[in-house]
């Protein structure tokens, strides 16, 4: 049976909005991780079969196939092609899936899976805003409106609906967010991210964590929606960042002298209620565990994207997972969520944390626009 291995994983620091990475062109931000990946793995870049890159807002500086542009900007061989994909927040996790599937199918041997988003340069919602300014309709066809009526479809409403369904109070959300910042600050202080980060533009560490935040400060913030419970403190941060991984076949490992660091165990996709939008990681995880023949207790480290605090809280409650091994070094509430870059960044964090603690199995999942979720399970080697 064919195997797909992760042989390299690197990321930039995650920059906060208008922070230290905001002046870096998105192409160059992504190119930095590609160069670092090639250098750290020692692979011949001309042997790479494809570069698959996730990016959500594919307009302006992030348009015209940023995967290809970043590879060329990195000064790497023009013989290697690149493609850019959008599965919303899961775009670069899907890039990992496509890369692994290319290897598992036997049609490719070396594939780069990457992701990038500069939300300082290309703000959230830019592509929709521009289209509607030009008189185009919202991105929901007649079938959507017939099926779901005139109700609002947004991540913010989805987060509030989750709080209603699971009964999460504002205080519970803020306690979770506070813990995310404390975990992230501790991880940075202890150097847990140092080897996985490729500094750029003078930025050496993630800019988002606020170790001095308090529950009292959070309690003083206004909610994002009238009569809601979600605030900016319990939502992911707007961020800039990129990540890249090298996925290799057994043949490539042997022929290029590479060292496998993890094996891809299973790749799954699941859709769920698009109005709730953010709940799909729950059924997606159940599906992935069943496919892998594992239980949640077998998972040593989990990275679930903290798009909003109710997402990991509901996942923890429904799956019965261990909170201590779930986002152990903080999540997007503290570290940021650069949309198309997050999947590759989370997998880089997951791999390095498994190696640090000597764990065997790691699981990554995140909620995605349209009510979708990817789940990737890896086994450390």
UniProtKB/TrEMBL annotation:
<feature type="domain" description="Thiolase N-terminal">
    <location>
        <begin position="5"/>
        <end position="250"/>
    </location>
</feature>
<dbReference type="InterPro" id="IPR002155">
    <property type="entry name" value="Thiolase"/>
</dbReference>
<protein>
    <submittedName>
        <fullName>Acetyl-CoA C-acetyltransferase</fullName>
        <ecNumber>2.3.1.9</ecNumber>
    </submittedName>
</protein>
<keyword id="KW-0808">Transferase</keyword>
<dbReference type="Pfam" id="PF02803">
    <property type="entry name" value="Thiolase_C"/>
</dbReference>
<feature type="active site" description="Proton acceptor">
    <location>
        <position position="367"/>
    </location>
</feature>
<keyword id="KW-0012">Acyltransferase</keyword>
<feature type="domain" description="Thiolase C-terminal">
    <location>
        <begin position="259"/>
        <end position="380"/>
    </location>
</feature>
<comment type="similarity">
    <text>Belongs to the thiolase-like superfamily. Thiolase family.</text>
</comment>
<dbReference type="GO" id="GO:0003985">
    <property type="term" value="F:acetyl-CoA C-acetyltransferase activity"/>
</dbReference>
<dbReference type="InterPro" id="IPR020617">
    <property type="entry name" value="Thiolase_C"/>
</dbReference>
<dbReference type="InterPro" id="IPR020613">
    <property type="entry name" value="Thiolase_CS"/>
</dbReference>
<feature type="active site" description="Acyl-thioester intermediate">
    <location>
        <position position="89"/>
    </location>
</feature>
<feature type="active site" description="Proton acceptor">
    <location>
        <position position="337"/>
    </location>
</feature>
<dbReference type="InterPro" id="IPR016039">
    <property type="entry name" value="Thiolase-like"/>
</dbReference>
<dbReference type="Pfam" id="PF00108">
    <property type="entry name" value="Thiolase_N"/>
</dbReference>
<dbReference type="InterPro" id="IPR020616">
    <property type="entry name" value="Thiolase_N"/>
</dbReference>
